[in-house]
TrEMBL record:
<feature type="modified residue" description="4-aspartylphosphate">
    <location>
        <position position="52"/>
    </location>
</feature>
<dbReference type="InterPro" id="IPR050595">
    <property type="entry name" value="Bact_response_regulator"/>
</dbReference>
<keyword id="KW-0597">Phosphoprotein</keyword>
<dbReference type="Pfam" id="PF00072">
    <property type="entry name" value="Response_reg"/>
</dbReference>
<dbReference type="InterPro" id="IPR001789">
    <property type="entry name" value="Sig_transdc_resp-reg_receiver"/>
</dbReference>
<feature type="domain" description="Response regulatory">
    <location>
        <begin position="3"/>
        <end position="119"/>
    </location>
</feature>
<dbReference type="GO" id="GO:0000160">
    <property type="term" value="P:phosphorelay signal transduction system"/>
</dbReference>
<protein>
    <submittedName>
        <fullName>Response regulator</fullName>
    </submittedName>
</protein>
<dbReference type="InterPro" id="IPR011006">
    <property type="entry name" value="CheY-like_superfamily"/>
</dbReference>
Length: 119
């Protein structure tokens, strides 16, 4: 099974996504601070990252750009998970290099389907 990294400043959102993925058999690692993304990526080498856009230290777009500079990132897919769900937001996220975009609020089924699509 795959390893999923969740980067979100909301412990409630992390818990929700983790619970949604519990039955899939995937390993889930999570962090709440985007400043730890590079170190976590290097240490964990996830197959897929679910990345929030709106975070206090560094937004998801900035975090994704930083991750792209890492050799460990080369094979990792990133999906933005955000309350910013306008067409412009989604298009911008995909242009930044995300493979998909999940708009909050979402259902557990949407999380599982999205992860299954990419791993």
């Amino acid at each position: 099974m795959a390893k999923i990294l969740i980067i979100d400043d909301s412990p409630a959102d992390i818990r929700f996504m983790t619970e949604a993925l519990r039955s899939t058999g995937h390993a889930v690692v999570s962090i709440t601070e985007s400043s730890k993304a590079e170190a976590t990526m290097e240490a964990e080498r996830p197959d897929l990252t679910l990345l929030d856009v709106v975070m206090p230290e560094r937004n998801g777009y900035e975090t994704l750009r930083a991750l792209k500079k890492l050799p460990a990132y080369a094979s990792t897919k990133v999906v933005f998970v955000s309350s910013k769900g306008s067409d412009t937001d989604v298009k911008w996220g995909l242009r930044q290099g995300a493979v998909d975009y999940l708009v909050k609020p979402y259902t557990p089924e949407q999380v599982v389907t999205l992860v299954s699509r990419h791993v």
